[in-house]
Amino acid sequence: MNLEAHIEEGERTLAHIWKAMAVRGAVAIAFSAVIVIWPKIGLTTLIALFGAFALVSGIATIAGAFSVPLSGRRRAWLAIEGLLGVAVGVVVFIWPSLSALGLLYAIAAWAIATGIVEIVLSFNLPISGRRSLLLGLGGLLSIAFGVIMFAEPGAGAIALLALVAAFALVSGVMQIVYAFELRRVVGELERPFRPRTTAKPVTHG
Fold first, then answer.
1. Whether the predicted pLDDT of 107 surpasses 80
2. How far apart are CA 136 and CA 31, in angstroms?
3. How many helices (H) and strands (E) are present in the chain, helices listed first?
4. How does the average pLDDT of the chain come out, rounded?
5. What are the CA-CA distances from residue 55 to residues 16, 44, 125, 176 (Å)?
6. Each residue of 134-155: pLDDT tens digit?
7. Do 135 and 118 touch, CB atoms closer than 8 A?
Protein backbone atom coordinates (compact mmCIF):
# COMPACT_ATOMS: atom_id res chain seq x y z
CA MET A 1 0.00 0.00 0.00
CA ASN A 2 1.47 3.35 -1.05
CA LEU A 3 1.50 6.43 1.19
CA GLU A 4 -1.52 8.06 -0.46
CA ALA A 5 -3.61 4.93 -0.10
CA HIS A 6 -2.44 4.52 3.51
CA ILE A 7 -3.51 8.10 4.35
CA GLU A 8 -6.89 7.60 2.65
CA GLU A 9 -7.48 4.41 4.63
CA GLY A 10 -6.45 6.15 7.85
CA GLU A 11 -8.82 9.06 7.23
CA ARG A 12 -11.60 6.58 6.42
CA THR A 13 -11.07 5.12 9.90
CA LEU A 14 -10.70 8.41 11.76
CA ALA A 15 -13.66 10.04 10.02
CA HIS A 16 -16.02 8.12 12.24
CA ILE A 17 -14.89 9.97 15.39
CA TRP A 18 -16.12 13.30 14.02
CA LYS A 19 -19.19 13.19 16.28
CA ALA A 20 -16.99 12.86 19.38
CA MET A 21 -14.94 15.86 18.22
CA ALA A 22 -18.12 17.85 17.58
CA VAL A 23 -19.45 17.06 21.07
CA ARG A 24 -16.19 18.25 22.62
CA GLY A 25 -16.30 21.46 20.61
CA ALA A 26 -19.96 22.17 21.38
CA VAL A 27 -19.44 21.63 25.12
CA ALA A 28 -16.39 23.94 25.11
CA ILE A 29 -18.27 26.69 23.28
CA ALA A 30 -21.26 26.31 25.63
CA PHE A 31 -18.91 26.58 28.63
CA SER A 32 -17.36 29.78 27.30
CA ALA A 33 -20.82 31.20 26.52
CA VAL A 34 -21.97 30.63 30.12
CA ILE A 35 -18.94 32.52 31.44
CA VAL A 36 -19.54 35.45 29.07
CA ILE A 37 -23.29 35.61 29.78
CA TRP A 38 -22.79 35.16 33.53
CA PRO A 39 -19.75 37.33 34.38
CA LYS A 40 -20.55 37.37 38.11
CA ILE A 41 -20.48 33.58 38.33
CA GLY A 42 -19.28 32.33 41.70
CA LEU A 43 -16.05 30.39 42.04
CA THR A 44 -17.83 27.25 43.28
CA THR A 45 -20.17 27.28 40.29
CA LEU A 46 -17.28 27.95 37.91
CA ILE A 47 -15.37 24.98 39.35
CA ALA A 48 -18.43 22.73 38.97
CA LEU A 49 -19.00 23.87 35.38
CA PHE A 50 -15.35 23.40 34.46
CA GLY A 51 -15.33 19.96 36.08
CA ALA A 52 -18.36 18.94 34.02
CA PHE A 53 -16.77 20.40 30.86
CA ALA A 54 -13.52 18.50 31.41
CA LEU A 55 -15.35 15.25 32.21
CA VAL A 56 -17.62 15.37 29.15
CA SER A 57 -14.69 16.31 26.92
CA GLY A 58 -12.58 13.46 28.29
CA ILE A 59 -15.33 10.86 28.06
CA ALA A 60 -16.16 11.87 24.46
CA THR A 61 -12.49 11.53 23.49
CA ILE A 62 -12.15 8.11 25.11
CA ALA A 63 -15.35 6.93 23.44
CA GLY A 64 -14.00 8.12 20.10
CA ALA A 65 -10.67 6.36 20.69
CA PHE A 66 -12.36 3.00 21.25
CA SER A 67 -15.00 3.36 18.54
CA VAL A 68 -12.59 2.98 15.63
CA PRO A 69 -10.01 0.28 14.79
CA LEU A 70 -6.76 2.11 15.49
CA SER A 71 -3.32 0.67 16.22
CA GLY A 72 -2.39 0.36 19.88
CA ARG A 73 -0.10 3.40 19.99
CA ARG A 74 -2.53 5.74 18.24
CA ARG A 75 -5.45 4.56 20.34
CA ALA A 76 -3.32 5.04 23.46
CA TRP A 77 -2.56 8.69 22.61
CA LEU A 78 -6.25 9.45 22.03
CA ALA A 79 -7.15 7.64 25.25
CA ILE A 80 -4.48 9.60 27.15
CA GLU A 81 -5.98 12.87 25.93
CA GLY A 82 -9.39 11.72 27.16
CA LEU A 83 -8.05 10.50 30.49
CA LEU A 84 -6.41 13.88 31.09
CA GLY A 85 -9.82 15.55 30.81
CA VAL A 86 -11.46 12.98 33.08
CA ALA A 87 -8.66 13.30 35.65
CA VAL A 88 -8.87 17.10 35.76
CA GLY A 89 -12.65 16.95 36.03
CA VAL A 90 -12.50 14.47 38.91
CA VAL A 91 -9.83 16.51 40.73
CA VAL A 92 -11.82 19.76 40.68
CA PHE A 93 -15.00 17.93 41.75
CA ILE A 94 -13.40 16.23 44.76
CA TRP A 95 -11.60 19.46 45.71
CA PRO A 96 -14.49 21.95 46.00
CA SER A 97 -12.42 24.34 48.14
CA LEU A 98 -10.03 24.90 45.24
CA SER A 99 -8.94 28.53 45.05
CA ALA A 100 -9.26 30.69 41.95
CA LEU A 101 -5.49 30.42 41.50
CA GLY A 102 -5.64 26.65 41.89
CA LEU A 103 -8.39 26.43 39.28
CA LEU A 104 -6.36 28.58 36.91
CA TYR A 105 -3.32 26.33 37.32
CA ALA A 106 -5.46 23.20 36.80
CA ILE A 107 -6.88 24.61 33.56
CA ALA A 108 -3.42 25.76 32.43
CA ALA A 109 -1.87 22.35 33.09
CA TRP A 110 -4.71 20.61 31.23
CA ALA A 111 -4.39 23.00 28.29
CA ILE A 112 -0.64 22.39 27.97
CA ALA A 113 -0.91 18.60 28.39
CA THR A 114 -3.78 18.39 25.88
CA GLY A 115 -1.87 20.57 23.42
CA ILE A 116 1.20 18.34 23.61
CA VAL A 117 -0.89 15.23 22.99
CA GLU A 118 -2.63 16.85 19.99
CA ILE A 119 0.72 17.82 18.47
CA VAL A 120 1.97 14.24 18.92
CA LEU A 121 -1.22 12.94 17.31
CA SER A 122 -0.82 15.32 14.37
CA PHE A 123 2.44 13.50 13.55
CA ASN A 124 1.19 9.99 14.33
CA LEU A 125 -2.29 9.76 12.89
CA PRO A 126 -2.56 8.72 9.23
CA ILE A 127 -4.16 11.95 7.98
CA SER A 128 -3.46 14.33 5.12
CA GLY A 129 -1.16 17.32 5.52
CA ARG A 130 -3.94 19.91 5.83
CA ARG A 131 -5.82 18.00 8.51
CA SER A 132 -2.61 17.17 10.34
CA LEU A 133 -1.68 20.86 10.30
CA LEU A 134 -5.10 21.80 11.67
CA LEU A 135 -4.76 19.36 14.56
CA GLY A 136 -1.23 20.56 15.31
CA LEU A 137 -2.36 24.20 15.23
CA GLY A 138 -5.06 23.42 17.76
CA GLY A 139 -2.41 21.87 20.00
CA LEU A 140 -0.14 24.92 19.71
CA LEU A 141 -3.01 27.27 20.61
CA SER A 142 -3.86 25.13 23.62
CA ILE A 143 -0.24 25.23 24.83
CA ALA A 144 -0.11 29.01 24.26
CA PHE A 145 -3.18 29.55 26.44
CA GLY A 146 -1.74 27.33 29.16
CA VAL A 147 1.57 29.23 29.17
CA ILE A 148 -0.26 32.58 29.34
CA MET A 149 -2.30 31.35 32.31
CA PHE A 150 0.83 30.26 34.15
CA ALA A 151 2.62 33.51 33.29
CA GLU A 152 -0.20 35.82 34.47
CA PRO A 153 -1.68 34.08 37.53
CA GLY A 154 -2.40 37.22 39.55
CA ALA A 155 -4.28 39.31 37.01
CA GLY A 156 -7.58 39.23 38.94
CA ALA A 157 -10.97 37.54 38.73
CA ILE A 158 -12.11 39.29 35.54
CA ALA A 159 -8.89 38.34 33.75
CA LEU A 160 -9.27 34.76 35.00
CA LEU A 161 -12.76 34.50 33.55
CA ALA A 162 -11.66 36.14 30.29
CA LEU A 163 -8.75 33.71 29.89
CA VAL A 164 -10.85 30.65 30.68
CA ALA A 165 -13.64 31.78 28.35
CA ALA A 166 -11.19 32.56 25.55
CA PHE A 167 -9.45 29.19 25.95
CA ALA A 168 -12.76 27.30 25.90
CA LEU A 169 -14.05 29.26 22.90
CA VAL A 170 -10.92 28.87 20.78
CA SER A 171 -10.58 25.21 21.75
CA GLY A 172 -14.22 24.56 20.92
CA VAL A 173 -14.08 26.31 17.56
CA MET A 174 -10.94 24.39 16.55
CA GLN A 175 -12.57 21.09 17.51
CA ILE A 176 -15.76 21.92 15.59
CA VAL A 177 -13.70 22.86 12.51
CA TYR A 178 -11.73 19.62 12.76
CA ALA A 179 -14.94 17.62 13.28
CA PHE A 180 -16.41 19.03 10.06
CA GLU A 181 -13.15 18.29 8.25
CA LEU A 182 -13.57 14.66 9.33
CA ARG A 183 -17.26 14.79 8.38
CA ARG A 184 -16.21 15.94 4.92
CA VAL A 185 -14.06 12.82 4.66
CA VAL A 186 -17.16 10.71 5.34
CA GLY A 187 -18.96 12.53 2.53
CA GLU A 188 -16.05 12.09 0.13
CA LEU A 189 -15.82 8.39 0.91
CA GLU A 190 -19.56 7.80 0.59
CA ARG A 191 -19.97 9.76 -2.65
CA PRO A 192 -18.67 7.02 -5.02
CA PHE A 193 -21.14 4.54 -3.53
CA ARG A 194 -24.26 6.67 -3.88
CA PRO A 195 -26.59 5.33 -6.55
CA ARG A 196 -26.59 7.34 -9.71
CA THR A 197 -29.88 8.34 -11.25
CA THR A 198 -30.14 7.49 -14.90
CA ALA A 199 -32.34 9.36 -17.30
CA LYS A 200 -35.30 7.42 -18.65
CA PRO A 201 -35.11 6.76 -22.38
CA VAL A 202 -37.35 8.95 -24.45
CA THR A 203 -39.88 6.97 -26.42
CA HIS A 204 -41.55 8.32 -29.48
CA GLY A 205 -45.17 7.30 -29.70
1. yes
2. 23
3. 7, 0
4. 76
5. 21, 17, 24, 18
6. 778 888 988 988 888 888 665 5
7. yes
Is 77 within 8 Å of 69 (Cβ atoms)?
Answer: no
Distance CA 65, CA 76 (A): 8
Q: By C-alpha distance, which of 143, 47, 48 is closest to 101? A: 47
Q: For residue 166, give the amino acid letter.
A: A
What is the model's pLDDT at position 129?
A: 62
**CB neighbours of 183 closer than 8 A, spacing ≥ 6?**
15, 18, 22
172: which residues sit within 8 A by CB, 6+ positions away? 24, 25, 26, 27, 28, 29, 30, 31, 32
For 9-42, the pLDDT digits (tens) are 555 555 667 777 788 889 889 989 988 888 788 7
Average pLDDT over residues 89-99: 81
What does residue 194 show for φ and ψ, rounded to 5 degrees?
A: -75, 135
> Angle at CA 105, nearest 5°, toward 100 and 111?
125
Phi, psi (deg, nearest 5) at residue 56: -60, -45
H or E element that contains 182: helix 157-190
Distances (CA, A) of 170 to 20, 28, 167, 190, 197: 17, 9, 5, 30, 43
